[in-house]
Amino acid sequence: MEPYRFYFKYQGVVKNTLETLGFLKTFGIFEE
């Protein structure tokens, strides 16, 4: 397993998750 490949894949998932949460928070759907 190549660490770098895994890192970039994981980073992309985290980025998408944060963007999704930010989108939901904008509409007040998601509350921390």
Name the beta content range.
under 5%
Q: Averaging pLDDT over every residue, what do you get?
A: 84
Strand runs, count: 0
Task: Give me the Rg, rounded.
Answer: 13 Å
The dominant shape is rod-shaped
Annotation keywords:
mainly alpha
How would you describe what is shown here?
The chain is an all-alpha fold and 32 residues long. The protein has 1 helix and no strands. It has one helix at 3-26. The termini are far apart.
Short structural description:
The protein is 75% helix and 0% strand.
Describe the SSE topology.
Layout: H1 3-26
